[in-house]
Specification:
By secondary structure, the protein is mainly alpha-helical. The chain folds into two domains: 81 residues, Rna Polymerase Sigma Factor, Chain: A; 71 residues, Arc Repressor Mutant, subunit A (Orthogonal Bundle), CATH 1.10.10.10. Helices cover 70% and strands 3% of the residues. A two-stranded antiparallel sheet has the order 1-2. A hairpin with a 5-residue loop joins strand 1 and strand 2. Helix 1 runs antiparallel to helix 2 and helix 3 crosses helix 4. The chain is elongated and about 55 Å long.
Length: 179
């Protein structure tokens, strides 16, 4: 199935999505790898999202002379956005674990905090995607189950079951889960 939407390359020649993808996929992945500090899993996700945006915006890019420059900007923005979200997630976990005040400065304390944060992040990463989303919205963001259900387009009963399963899994790993 050929896509109807087209963009123009540097020479002004009309290109289909498939042509633009083939021509720029290696470059986009390379840029994503660079901005994601070599993390291939994150870079692949970024590249996927960039080409999804290209597909969605291709009709609007018809008059654009250099699609490569547009792809570069979108790749950089997407990678930085992902990294920002990751840092804010880590900061939220640290705040919940340790509070806002630093009471025990020192290398040993920093190491302990880092290790505990990694353990929590690993425990959350081990959850199935939907359970992780629900428990993060509930425990980290303080959202009510009703709001979570509306946000994720799920029934409140299903959100309750997902939360119970996630809580049980985390408690088996030794974590107390509370909002």
């Amino acid at each position: 199935m050929a896509l109807v939407a087209q963009a123009q390359d540097v020479a002004g020649e009309a290109r289909s999505f498939e042509d633009v993808y083939r021509r720029h996929r290696d470059g986009v992945l390379g840029w994503a790898l660079r901005y994601c500090a070599g993390r291939s899993d994150l870079a692949e996700d970024v590249a996927h999202d960039v080409f999804l945006k290209l597909h969605q915006q291709l009709a609007r890019l018809t008059g654009l002379e250099d699609v490569g420059a547009w792809l570069y900007r979108v790749t950089v923005n997407e990678a930085l956005s992902r990294l920002r979200r990751e840092r804010s997630f880590g900061a939220k976990v640290k705040q919940l674990l340790f509070g806002e005040e630093e009471t025990r400065p020192g290398a040993d304390h920093d190491f302990e905090r880092h290790e505990k944060t990694l353990l929590v992040e690993r425990a959350l990463a081990a959850l199935p995607d939907l359970e992780r989303a629900v428990v993060c919205l509930w425990a980290l963001d303080g959202r009510a189950q009703k709001d979570i259900a509306r946000t994720l387009s799920l029934s409140e009963g299903y959100v309750s079951r997902l939360l119970a399963r996630a809580t049980e899994r985390l408690e088996k790993r030794g974590w107390e889960v509370r909002p």
